[in-house]
Each structure stands twice: as structure tokens, then as C-alpha cells.
Design a protein that fits this description.
The chain has 1 helix and 5 strands, in the order βββαββ. It has one domain. The termini are close together. It has 71 residues and is mainly beta. It has one helix at 41-44; strands at residues 13-17, 25-31, 34-37, 55-58, 64-66.
């Protein structure tokens, strides 16, 4: 996976919402092109699978869109 960043602000910190509970979020960073969930995130619950069509939200600015649209 190539290096991806927010198309607006260049951040590599994002989150996704739980498909079962829209108020539950999973924060992650893109490091070296790999998804790294926030420490402890995987211990408390199983994060959802993140694919090309997953709705992704920037953790820094107001951008959101499909994961595959990250630059």
C-alpha cells in the first residue's frame, strides 16, 4: 500500500465508524502505508475491516470519504 494522506490537510490520522453502532469509532493512523489502530483499540473490541469503499473520516479536519480516495 502506498503512502496515503488526507486530501485536504495531509494528515495521516483517521477514524471509521462501527457499522453496527454509528456512535462507536475506531481511530487509526497510516504509517508506512499500513493501518495502525490506536493502542488498546484492538483489545477492547474488534475493529471493522477497512476496505476501499469504507467511509473514512480525517482525525484532523472535516474531510470524509471513501478510503480509496485518500491521496
Amino acid at each position: 500500500m502506498s503512502e496515503r494522506k488526507c486530501p485536504y490537510c495531509g494528515s495521516q490520522n483517521f477514524y471509521v465508524k462501527d457499522p453496527e453502532d454509528q456512535y462507536e469509532i475506531y481511530e487509526f493512523a497510516l504509517q508506512g502505508g499500513n493501518i495502525q489502530f490506536k493502542p488498546g483499540e484492538e483489545e477492547t473490541s474488534q475493529p471493522p475491516e477497512i476496505g476501499a469503499e469504507t467511509e473514512t473520516y480525517c482525525g484532523t479536519c472535516s474531510w470524509h470519504g471513501k478510503f480509496n480516495t485518500l491521496k
